[in-house]
Amino acid sequence: MADKVLMKGNEAIAEAAIIAGCRHYFGYPITPQTEVAAYMAKKMPKIGGCFLQAESEIAAINMVYGVSSTGKRVMTSSSSPGISLKGEGLSYLAGSDLPALVVNVQRGGPGLGGIQPSQSDYFQATRGGGHGDYHMIVLAPASVQEMAELTVKGFDLADKYRMTSMILADGTMGQMMEPVSLDFDINPQPEKPWATTGTKMEREHNIVNSLSLVPEELEMLNMKRYERYKVIEENEAMYEEYMVDDADIVIAAFGIAARVSKNAVNEARKQGIKVGLIRPITLWPFPKAPFEKAAETAKAFISVELSMGQMIEDVKLATNCKRPVTLCNRVGGMIPSPEQVLKAIIDVNNGGVK
Amino acid sequence: MSTKQFLFSGFGGQGILFAGKFLAYKGLIEDKQVSWLPSYGPEMRGGTASCSVIISDEPVGSPIVSNPDMLIAMNLPSLDKYENAVVPGGVIFADSTLIERKVNRDDVTVYYIPATRLASENGTPTLANMIIIGKVLKVLGDFSEDAVRAALGKVISAKHADMLEVNLKAMQLGADYE
Amino acid sequence: MAVVFDKPHALIDVPLHYCPGCTHGIIHRLVAEVIDELGIEGRTIGVAPVGCSVMAYNYFNCDMIEAAHGRAPAVATGVKRADPENNVVFTYQGDGDLASIGMAETVHAAARNENITVIFINNAIYGMTGGQMAPTSLPGQVTQTSPYGRDPKHCGYPIKVCEMLSELEGPEYLERVTVNSVKNIRTAKKAIKKAFQNQLDGKGFSLIEVISSCPTNWGMTPQAALKWIDEKMIPYYPLGVYKDRSAEKEAE
User: Do C114 and C80 form a contact (C-beta atoms < 8 A)?
Assistant: First the structure.
């Protein structure tokens, strides 16, 4: 495997973005994602790209808005408190149907919170993050390899559907090193006839805009956007299944929680408990199909999260509350241990937890 | 081995993360599955630094090492904190220059290496970490000079290529220490 | 027959939504004339603010972007950096947008000497929302949110944007003009043209502050409003060039 290199998750995101053709990065320092900015600061000037440290998260996301308006691939990255600041820009990007890649390497909250890993921005990410009716495509990597792959995928999906793709990682994914292969097939970028590149006096002027003062028109815009979202829900949901086929108990977990859960699943299997794991890779669109299917045969679900229980709501929705869903969690920067997850599995298996 | 879990811990500045990175790279070169996870944040500035390294024939599950097969403790707080986390039958490497007490457990193998003193005497006071790593590889039965050179080449930047031999010598020192 | 007065090509022939007597129309025209004269319409991208001129994107014939409130300089930074050789970028912002909610973006774009042109409309009031106190409202000025007159002891003093930015090393050009007379309109156009020319010459950040009137929310006739500019605004906000780095260099 000579083509593999050891990289931090944050660095893998940055390198993959460059490979995907992104030449503009704007950001503001915040732990635990600063390596993305540092990597870009080093690389961009050497390849004719632009790295600019913005005066704030708000400015950074609006610089992204500017570059995206011209049709070029562009990204920003931050961590939880910084993403809240970007919320305004995320809403405007959605309202103007602009593609962008935004990375959230989550830390514990609310408020300034801590700097250790967390998944407590799940609601914020999957429900849009800012004001108004909209979605982002939310990608949840569970390895450094996926940090890179989903970055490339994120740019493609963003361009295809003219919306924001968010990489929803956490401090562990950002900071850990694993072997990565950066040998990607890069798809050509689509034409963007809507972009504000200057009319060259050859066409009517293009307008990038999210203002729409006539309610009937704004309603129509929202409806159209949601038709597009429906196509995405039907076609773009991604997930991994692990030993689900014969499972009595199914764990739902993404990112680092899925990694920990896999250990627990292996251990529980050794003890003869039939348990499996569904790992959503897209959090929006949430992969409903594997949960619907599992709900027909499995007896119970466990949602393992680094939050007070956010994804669990989507698990309940996807299973139509047909089976009990319990929560196994740690928060505030703590990570559940495989033993904790194993205990949750055993408890559910014994029917001890409702 | 199928899976080995290592926990490196010490003061920030002792090269804890570097030592872990070296071991991970060595695993990668040998076609193993590896992960390296550092502690991060303000604690890096002179406080406790630690990193989890997993080297396995299987895909690595959780990258967090809570119960190491091998603990490399480079200061007393690290030993205090992690001694009891080591799996029974595991191994503890302790820098006995900085850790004056003995390990309390009798179900683990312990190697006391005065790494900080050896590093100092060797004229390379910053390489106590690599002295201990030398011993780790020796105990693992895995100290081949070619593999070590290749891995060092990955973690030492071309700019500091002259440091490769120095690191190798430090590791040899640790490997030979009885 | 020789045409002596026509609509600039860079301005689209549609009715503007501005109130009667508002000077936005004049300033739009000046910007469009400059774009015509410099022959840059095909590569100009304008950034509209939130405020009375929010719908400027419907009036300028060049490509246009509507920015979030106060963020136009950041958006313009992105547009400029996307293609610095080709793109000519201007923002058109009011006082609430530029000097209140967007002050950080303004100051930092200036500090970076971002190679963009900023047209700053200062009419000392929030027009679109119906006449509230602006960061540039004068001491004693009565507005909907300072009904007893702006009391600096309670809500601070007006911000003199040109003076403040002139202390920065970054910006290339800062000038304050007004459009309440033919003579002043001519000066304003010269300043706006220079601000665009500076960008074409790669000189960097140019901001033209245009003291404007708001007859509706000032509660005056258009004529009285133009007079109020002379009597009240200009004494507080003196016209003139506040920074011209190239000229300063030449003078040295």
Answer: yes
Nearest-neighbour CA in chain A from B143: distance (Å): 21
A10 touches A33 (CB < 8 A)? yes
Strand (E) or helix (H) holding C242: strand C240-244
Q: What is the mean pLDDT of residues A99-116?
A: 95
A6/B61 Cβ within 8 A: no
- Do residue C76 and residue A66 have CB atoms under 8 angstroms apart? yes
Q: Which pLDDT band, with edges at 50, 70 and 90, does B46 fall under?
A: low
The DSSP bridge pattern shows strands C173-178 and C206-211 to be parallel
State whether ipTM is beyond 0.95. Answer: no
Q: Do chains C and B touch (3 or more CB pairs under 8 A)?
A: no
Count CB-CB contacts under 10 A for residue C12. Answer: 17
Task: Please state which architecture CATH assigns to domain B3-176.
Answer: 3-Layer(aba) Sandwich (3.40)
- Give dist(CA C81, CA A66) in Å, integer: 9
Question: Across chain C, what does the average pLDDT equal?
Answer: 96
- DSSP lists the bridge partners of residue C133 as C125
Report pLDDT digits (tens) over C47-104.
999 999 999 999 999 999 999 999 999 999 999 999 999 999 999 999 999 999 999 9
Residue C5, domain member (yes or no): no
**Which value, in Å, is the radius of gyration of the alpha carbons in chain B?**
15
Interchain proximity A62–C108, CB inside 8 Å: no
Looking at the DSSP assignment, which residues form a beta bridge with residue A6?
A179
Query: Where in the sequence is the domain holding C58, given as residue range(s)?
Result: 24-251
